[in-house]
Amino acid sequence: MPDTEPSSTPTSEEPTSKPTRTIISTEAPGTGGGGTAAGGPNESGAPIGTTGVLLALALAGGIGIAVVRRRRS
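^ thats the sequence. predicted structure below, dont judge the formating
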């Protein structure tokens, strides 16, 4: 049978230490930056030389097609 007599020490005393609270921010940081400014990888994509050559070939091809069409008409 369980003990039903009151104990000599009360159990409703205040705890000796306060519980810790975790602060969770609901706002975004206002520091800005990002990308390579935050130290990310520096990926420049295709080199400028390759891009320039491809653009020059496309331009020359377009001019060539225009000249051929003009001569046929």
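The chain has a mean pLDDT of 74.
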